[in-house]
Amino acid sequence: MKAPRHRAVERSVLAFAGLLTLVVLALSAYLRFEAADLGCADWPDCYARIAAVEQRAGGPVAALRRTTASVLGLVALGYFFFALRRRRRRIAGTALVALTALLAWVGVHTPSPLEPWVTLLNVTAGMALLGVYGGLWLHPDAPPPARWTGRRVAAGVGVGIVFAQIALGAWASAHYSEPACPGLLCPADASAVRIADAFDPTRRLAVAEGRVAVDGVSAVVQRAHRLGALLAFLYIGALALRALRTPAARAAGLAVLALLLVQTALGFAGSLLGYPLWIAVGHNAVAAVLLLGAVRLYHVYARD
């Protein structure tokens, strides 16, 4: 009876850590968007004022985020030592500590509004941390690897596509590209920008008239994000619909399909309504839960 009790405690800790990670991701998105004044009253002229963005956000929300992140760091460290002592899940425990340390290091460089790589690392490392916690919670006993069926490979590709689309969204956010494509359209002159410039990790953003400049590069990044959203919608939607035909995967597929529709609706609403703050934060939060849903679907197929 001792082993089942240990597993129950472990799963509770992993669920708690996953919830904390979701909270940190949502609070980080809120602080980032609020500092940039996303969806401000005089949109878009009031957006991305460099003096406001460069000021480290304070107040109760920032304090709550720091406290939650600190607790999350202690949980990751505790799980690492637990994994070493139990001689199981040591690679996953090391990954948790490494990702937590990376997030702490990136936090030292935050805010850096003219360095898009800071936002990219902050978001993707946080999402990867959430994915690891989700995977551990789903399979805490480390079952023997199943054979690589076509459905399992397709679900694994789906996890990668969701993560890549999240990274594209982070890159677009880091370029303050929301005003670059008003409504659902992007300006034609964006085609003159080189793709290499739009995705150069060393590129610093320019400042014009006291604001982060929104230029052709911003439009290319936003266009790439929207194209990625279309491709992700088609692939993940097909993957979820296929899962509905498999009894063991039906619940996971239904959850992924529902989350995909909500995420798409939030994306359209943000574009059409001038990016209200609550829609942008919700878009980020639902993306994190969608990633968990894709991970769950992969693990369902891994048990086949």
From TrEMBL:
Cellular compartments annotated: Membrane
GO MF entries: metal ion binding; oxidoreductase activity
Protein transport found in the keyword field: no
Topology within the bilayer: Multi-pass membrane protein
Spans through the membrane: 12-33, 67-84, 91-108, 120-140, 152-174, 227-244, 251-269, 275-298
Pfam families given in the database record: COX15-CtaA
Keywords of the record: Cell membrane, Disulfide bond, Heme biosynthesis, Iron, Membrane, Metal-binding, Oxidoreductase, Transmembrane, Transmembrane helix
GO biological process: heme A biosynthetic process
Pathway: Porphyrin-containing compound metabolism
Cellular component aspect of the GO annotation: membrane
Protein name: Cytochrome C oxidase subunit I
Source species taxonomy: Bacteria, Pseudomonadati, Pseudomonadota, Gammaproteobacteria, Acidiferrobacterales
